[in-house]
Design brief:
- This protein has 242 residues and is of the alpha/beta class.
- The chain has a single domain, classed as 3-Layer(aba) Sandwich (Rossmann fold).
- It has eight helices and eight strands, in the order βββααβααβαβαβαβα.
- The chain has helices spanning 31-35, 37-48, 63-66, 85-103, 119-130, 149-154, 182-194, 215-235; strands spanning 4-8, 11-17, 23-29, 53-59, 112-117, 136-140, 162-168, 201-207.
- An eight-stranded mixed sheet has the order 1-2-4-3-5-6-7-8, sandwiched between helices.
Length: 242
């Protein structure tokens, strides 16, 4: 299947859809993500065993607002964080997912995975703490250093049963004090989910390099883990989700 460019509610989307798709994957993206989509697709297929799926990357217009769960002061540079994550999440659940189901003739009950890199990874985590609509989450090098994230996660229930976490082994080695907490924070997030291991399967994978090392490869690994794990669950005749 070739890549298809489409507009959904004035949002640019780039998608492909395999015949007989068993899963729907959604990823927020910017120009850098779009550049490496073909490599990411091929890596996902190789690592997942070519499990048929539909994959959609939607272009984020304002990264620091649209993916941020609440207002926060600048951490690097002068750009503050907004509070547009709820609007983005509403767009996904109410507009984008139904549009993709209609466009590619996907079943209404198809499991949907949300995943992303960096702040998009945090958004993916926020999404599954906010709704039970997603069957799995790939939070790849997520910005779990974000102000008040721990407090939020500690006071909200996770709404999915599959969570993939990853981080580069040099990401915490930065002069930025806020971002330097990411190594501790990702392990706290893993421990938080491990406490719910009876209902949540969680993986934490460490990658070589800093935050900017091959994000497309790291993201592909995250989605591939979700696909493999979910396929195993379905093959056992079990339901995915909480």
């Amino acid at each position: 299947m070739e890549w298809i460019r489409m507009s959904v509610a004035e949002t640019e989307c780039i998608c492909y859809s395999d015949v007989g798709s068993r899963f729907l994957l959604i990823q927020p993206g910017d120009e850098n993500d779009l550049t490496d989509l073909q490599k990411q697709k091929e890596e996902m297929e190789q690592r997942s065993g070519k499990i048929p799926c539909t994959f959609c990357v939607f272009r984020v217009k304002d990264w620091f607002k649209d993916l941020s769960p609440w207002d926060a002061p600048p951490v690097f540079g002068k750009t503050a964080f907004g509070h547009g994550a709820d609007d983005t999440l509403a767009f996904l659940t109410s507009v984008l997912i139904p549009a993709l189901q209609d466009k590619f003739r996907l079943s209404e009950g198809i499991p949907v995975f949300i995943g992303g890199y960096s702040l998009a990874g945090l958004f993916a985590l926020y999404a599954v703490y906010s709704t039970k609509r997603f069957a799995g989450c790939a939070a790849v090098s997520p910005s779990v250093w974000f102000p008040n994230w721990n407090e939020y996660a500690d006071t909200h229930e996770i709404g999915t049963s599959l969570v993939y976490l990853s981080l580069g082994d040099k990401e915490e080695k930065t002069k930025n004090r806020q971002m330097a907490t990411v190594g501790v924070r990702i392990q706290e997030q893993k421990a938080r989910l491990d406490e719910k291991r009876e209902i949540v399967s969680c993986c934490l994978e460490w990658n070589e390099g800093n935050h900017f090392s091959v994000p497309w490869l790291r993201t592909a690994k995250g989605f591939a883990w979700l696909l493999r794990t979910a396929a195993e669950v379905k093959n056992e005749g079990k339901e995915i989700g909480i």
